[in-house]
Design goal:
Layout (H helix, E strand, L loop, with lengths): L2 E2 L1 H8 L3 H9 L6 E3 L5 E5 H16 L3 H10 L6 H44 L8 H18 L1
Helix pairs in contact: 1-2, 3-4
Length: about 150
């Protein structure tokens, strides 16, 4: 059975050894320890697969606890239907959250576009909508005062 060092996995998946150690601290990976004082981590094919699934979950935007829950389900092949249903539930919740974020972004982008247009109009010397009337009133008041004072 093949084994891997932390450096080999880091290179293969283009991540840092520190990230791999972090996933180990989170309970996503459990390498064997070898050498003096167990300082050398040795990753099995199983650990490599768990790391691959963890990184895939991160790309999907899942939390580490969601990833751990899903990856841990595949440790026991007792009921694959239950595992798949759980995965579908996690994906549905995540999709819902992303769709809400997309809606929020669309609203924000529309607001930004409106502000940009207003700024461009002001730079072009146009008055923003609704500012013409107050300016006319001020001019009318000045001419009335000037007539009264004369």
């Amino acid at each position: 059975m093949p084994t891997y060092t932390i450096t080999e996995l880091a290179r293969e998946f283009d991540i840092t050894p520190r990230a791999i150690r972090f996933y180990e601290d989170q309970g996503l990976l459990t390498p064997k320890r070898e050498g003096a004082g167990g300082r050398t981590r040795v990753y099995s094919a199983r650990e490599r697969t768990r790391l691959k699934l963890t990184l895939r979950g991160k790309r999907l935007g899942l939390t580490l606890s969601e990833i751990k829950s899903l990856v841990d389900m595949y440790e026991s092949p007792k009921d694959s239907a239950a595992q798949l249903n759980r995965f579908l539930l996690v994906l549905a919740r995540h999709r819902e959250m992303l769709e809400q974020q997309r809606e929020d972004l669309e609203v924000t982008l529309a607001e930004i576009a409106a502000h940009e247009e207003q700024c461009r109009s002001m730079l072009a010397g146009e008055k923003p909508a609704g500012e013409d009337k107050p300016a006319k009133k001020s001019a009318a008041k000045r001419s009335t005062r000037q007539t009264e004072n004369a």
